[in-house]
Amino acid sequence: QVQLVESGGGLVQAGGSVRVSCAVSGQTSSTYNMGWFRQAPGKEREFVAAIDWYGVNIEYTASMKDRFRISKDNAKNTGWLQINSLKPEDTAVYYCTADFRPAAARTLGTTEDAYDAWGRGTQVTVSS
């Protein structure tokens, strides 16, 4: 059973930085792409960033490209999302997700249906 567990959220001041983590377990030797989505209060969940297994191909939502940084360490089965220059509108639950489909079928998707495993999310609250 694959598990994704996020951590590292919390209350942060505007202008600061936060790094949220995603620990992946139970996937045996499978390779996977990793993505991050977020859901702000009263809004739909939206795509933030994605990274392929090799860390070569990365996608960001255009408006987040400057302040967000996705990374992963395959040896540690862990991924991270760094958010800099935090704004109150970054307040959201941040979800880690992974695509374990066969490599030939994977895309570095920006929609929820591109992923087949999800964490429960970690709350990031930015105070002004």
Describe the protein.
With 128 residues, the chain is mainly beta. It is 0% helix and 48% strand. It has strands at residues 3-7, 10-13, 18-25, 33-39, 46-51, 58-60, 68-73, 78-83, 92-99, 117-118, 122-127.
Keywords:
128 residues, mainly beta, four-stranded antiparallel beta sheet, 11 strands, 48% strand
Order of SSEs = EEEEEEEEEEE
- Quaternary organisation: single chain
Into which percentage range does the β-strand content fall?
Answer: over 45%
- Separate helix tally: 0
Extended strand count: 11
Shape designation: globular
Average of pLDDT: 95
The main β sheet shows up as:
7 strands, mixed
What is the CA-atom radius of gyration, in angstroms? 14 Å
Map the helices and strands.
Layout: E1 3-7, E2 10-13, E3 18-25, E4 33-39, E5 46-51, E6 58-60, E7 68-73, E8 78-83, E9 92-99, E10 117-118, E11 122-127
Parallel strand pairs: 2-11
Antiparallel strand pairs: 1-3, 3-8, 4-5, 4-9, 5-6, 7-8, 9-10, 9-11
